[in-house]
Specification:
252 residues; Rossmann fold; alpha/beta; 7 strands; 7-stranded parallel β-sheet
């Protein structure tokens, strides 16, 4: 009797929508799953736009989810967010622990608008309790769109790969002129100096970036200076807006 031919083992499907979307398709994937996933993605965009449509003065703050309340970075993020809230800015974070919690907490305790855009992960990321508005996303790229669309600038505290991802996406969008007058502030010079030295000593001399690219971000250790950078940016935008003729202005 011939032995039955063993079938190749099927990989278990991912536990989150992002994982499932990025998996290599199975034989019947397109006809049964992928077209419907488009509607789920579209619905998530619509829900995010609807929830945040009235937001006009948002600032996104990023940083490590591992920072503890006693860490200097946590304390500085909380102070920065409180200053921003005091000036009428809404603070937007990823809604989780660490720097995200610190920023939401600072805005919340200052009586400001504190928004969390949480994400579905294979391991549960708990939402911090300092949010006046909380959204939950299944897809990273939808969530990233909300950060950029509803922010006037990014404040980047020390963090890991997720923080780097948000930083370099913003710099790429600025470099390619997809977004304009968008300040990116790196908080914590001791943390970021190694990366900046690599830019200056390796990337720039190698012709991979230009001199103007090194001016796309600010570095500071002062919460007060973060506020000043954002206020200057908005003042410049207001002055530029007055120079635009009503004859060429796009309808809102």
């Amino acid at each position: 009797m011939e032995e039955e031919q063993k079938q190749p083992a099927q990989k278990a499907p991912g536990s989150t929508q992002d994982e499932q979307l990025l998996e290599s398709p199975r034989a019947d994937e397109f006809t049964h799953t992928d077209p419907w996933r488009v509607f789920r993605i579209m619905g998530e965009f619509v829900e995010g736009f609807d929830e945040l449509a009235s937001l006009t003065r948002g600032v996104s703050i990023f940083g490590s989810a591992r920072s503890k309340p006693a860490d200097p970075d946590y304390i500085a993020a909380q102070e920065t967010a409180a200053l921003l809230a005091g000036e009428g800015y809404a603070v937007i974070t990823g809604g989780g622990p660490g720097i995200m919690e610190a920023a939401n907490r600072g805005a919340f305790e200052a009586g400001g608008l504190s928004i969390g855009c949480n994400i579905e992960l294979p391991f549960e990321q708990r939402s911090n309790p300092y949010q006046t508005r909380s959204l939950k996303f299944k897809y990273f790229f939808v969530r990233k769109m909300m950060f950029v669309k509803y922010s006037l600038g990014f404040i980047i505290f020390p963090g890991g790969f997720g923080t780097f991802d948000e930083l370099f996406e913003a710099l790429t969008l600025i470099q390619t002129k997809k977004i304009r007058n968008f300040p990116v502030v790196l908080f914590g010079s001791a943390y970021w100096n190694g990366l900046l030295d690599w830019f200056r000593q390796v990337v720039l001399p190698g012709g991979k970036i230009g001199d103007l690219d090194m001016r796309m971000f600010h570095v500071t250790d002062s919460p007060r200076e973060v506020l000043e950078i954002l206020n200057r940016s908005q003042s410049s935008l207001h002055e530029l807006d007055k120079l635009v003729s009503d004859d060429i202005r796009l309808p809102s």
